[in-house]
Amino acid sequence: MPNNLASIVSSLSNRTSVSLARASLFKFVGLLAGVFLLASVSLVFLAQDLDRTEEAESAFYTQKAVQSLEKSLRLTVKDYAFWGDAYKHLHTQVDPNWAFVRQNVGSTLYADFGIQGLFVVNDVNRTVYSVVKGELKPVELAQWLGHSVDSILDKARAGAESETPTTAFVKIGGVPALVAAAAITPGTDPTVSLDDRLPSVLIFVDMLEDAKLQAIGDDFGVNGLRVATADDVDDTSRFALGDDGSVGNLRWISSRPGLRLLGIGLPLIGIAALLVCLMTWVILRRATVAALALDASYASLQKSQDALATSEARFRDVVEASSDWVWEIDANSRFTYLSERFEAVTGLSMNAWIGAAMDDLLGTESGTLSQWLSLPNRRPDITIQCRYVDPLGRERITRLSARDMPCKGFRGTATDVTEEVEARRRIEFLSQHDALTGLPNRTRLQEFLDGKLKAMPSEDSPLVMLSLDLDRFKPVNDLLGHAAGDLVLNEVSSRLADCVRHGDLVARVGGDEFVLILTDVSSQDEVEALCHRLIESIERPVAIDEQEVFVSASIGIAMAPNDASKAAELLRYADIALYEAKAAGRNTWRFYAGDMNVKIIERRRLENDLRFAIKHGELRLHFQPRYRIADGKMVGAEALVRWKHPEHGLIPPDTFIPIAEESGLIISLSNWVLNTACTSAAHWPNGLFVSVNLSPTEFKQGNLVERIQQSLDDSGIDPARVELEITESVMLEDASGALEIMRTLKRLGVRIAMDDFGTGYSSLSYLRAFPFDGLKIDRSFLNRLDESEDDKAIIQAIVGLGRALALTVTAEGIETAEQLKLLKAVSCDEGQGYFLSRPLDIEAFNTLVGVREKEVSQSDV
Ligand code: C2E
Ligand code: CA
Ligand code: CA
Questions:
Q1: Which of 252, 305, 477, 729 has the most CB atoms within 10 Å of its CB?
Q2: What integer pLDDT is reported at residue 851 of this predicted model?
Q3: Structural domains of the chain in order of their starting residue, each with its CATH number
Q4: Ligand 1 site: residues with CB under 6 angstroms?
């Protein structure tokens, strides 16, 4: 589905057409309401404006009316005041008869003009003539008016010359009144002569009663003009009389045309709005019904659109969220579609590959991808592993699934499985290889061997198995640490791998044990040449931290089909041969021979026999005396174990001690030796000591100290008379453990001597660091003493060293008088050997010590 359609559907789906119709109608109603409101506001504004104009007009005409009132009163007073007769009868001499009775200035003014007050004030401002409401009444003007009239009189007199009357508004008993005053002058009458007094003043007072005001107002088109009362609210429809309305205000009835306009306009607008609302409601109802119908039909459309959109979204999510990319190719195997993930996963450009051949991108191990796709019976659920090269040049592996498309061509997914394949490969490798050296391990060896044996090796092209074991490797590990040991193993591994051909196998099957499988070796000479090469290459020093480490190797060889045809047998025979090689002095090789197996069986039997011998007291103990060389005095004896086998006769300890060590019998054997030696020696005279040999394996058992303590306790011998002989291999295996045990042993009170001194390589350093009381020079030095001057020097040096370290130096294996003489010459402390005495059985030894002092120097030297 195209994207824009989807977007329309999704946007539409948010709103129904009912709501859509409603929304637009409401908008329209809102607009109309706005218009009505505007019209109402304009109408109100217009009305107010009309009222304001009307008000201003009324005020203007009121003013006009007042002005006309003033004017007419002024004219009236002017007519009477500027008159010669009035001057004569009201100023020169006040003549009420002329004025009132003859009606010259009398009640007619009240009757005709409504002038309520008529006064004449003389030159000294005294009221001399007064008519009130048409009746002659002697009353003082100021009194009647209620306030001073001086300013009016002054103004009237000031206008005398120009015959100008004056007017003013006053308040009389709460009613405003218009006062007009004019100075009485002769006017144009030439018969009247002016006197030199101040002119008298004629004053008309017109009370502004409501009836009069209304009549004037009517004349000027102002309705209901009247004086404002205290009840009137203070609004603008008023006209102020006098200065600032101090006299009072005039009011009139405002026609308020604006208000009238509102009265008509607003209801009209209201009715119009009501009508519009009604119409809107009707339209809305119709629109809703129509829209509901539309929605109903739309909802069903929506449902299918939704389903489509959901499925599309799901597809998109799956396609983009998974690490897979989706592809489509046409009938010509060219890409027509690649999902967006393609670029992210492969790092390749989508544009570059659209239209390109699929086979150019992806390759399989068997044929091209298009071949695979067009296989007639290809199942769609079967995937294929393909390779391609990413932009960084690395090979990537992808798993491809494919399905036919109806319009020819294929579509499918591609899953990147590079990491998975690599991880599986790695796991496979690790499970078949040794983690340290990377060489194949026992599992791989087994597999390889099975495969090779299945191919049926023949006598002409046999399968050769070498079992190789490093000599002197353990000390490297112990002395230099495991890191150094690992380095040596790695170095040896690579040297071994270098010596064999491609197709052969070098496996590491144990700590320092290797197995080599060789094919394509025809003669025994060839095998021997290889063994020679192997040993030689291993013997080359290995450099570790500026130190050179030497190891060597022993090799046992077994061949198929001659020796065996089964993997297990072959391995066992190669091991037997290896054992033989080691027994033969190491650093060499041995071919498996039939009788080797016999020897092994023999050894097993011997082991059983030894177990029996220990249990049933077949062992004997011999004692070889040790003498002080200086004076030939016997100082003690070394206990040496003997085994007389019922069938084989006397078996030397060099033969059965290793068997005892290997089988674990050494502890019970040694216990017997210790007990027997201590018990025997406990009876010896002159503080003779007994020296007992300990096997290095006894140090590893943990309870050595307790065992010795037990023997000391059981025998009751003075611990100072017991010496323990240990070889340096004890220290080689676990120096710190050995040191601790030796210190504990020393606390028991026994002496400790280093046996076979000079055969190992670090004896000297041990001598200093460990609590030895003595050392025994190995008999191999004595053997060579006759021939080698060097050895003489060495013995001398050892004796000197022993002295320096306060150790008792004993020479072993003294066989000749010369040797003894020489040892005496270098002041060696003690000696032991056939020349002095062979090891003796208990009876013989007891007899000997019964003799007590055997003067060595006298009898033998
Ligand atoms: P070792 O401790 O060096 O014992 C001395 C060996 O030299 C003894 O051999 C002794 O008979 C032999 N010998 C003494 N004087 C001479 C001589 O002048 N010339 C020659 N060629 N040999 C002489 P043996 O008794 O056969 O013992 C061999 C080794 O067996 C001993 O060597 C010792 O390491 C071990 N061994 C013997 N008895 C015991 C024992 O009770 N316990 C343990 N753990 N090892 C023992
Ligand atoms: Ca010894
Ligand atoms: Ca020895």
A1: 252
A2: 40
A3: 1-72+256-321 (no CATH), 82-208 (3.30.450), 324-432 (3.30.450.20), 436-592 (3.30.70.270), 618-860 (3.20.20.450)
A4: 624, 639-641, 652-654, 657, 670, 673, 693-695, 755-756, 779, 812-815, 833-834, 839
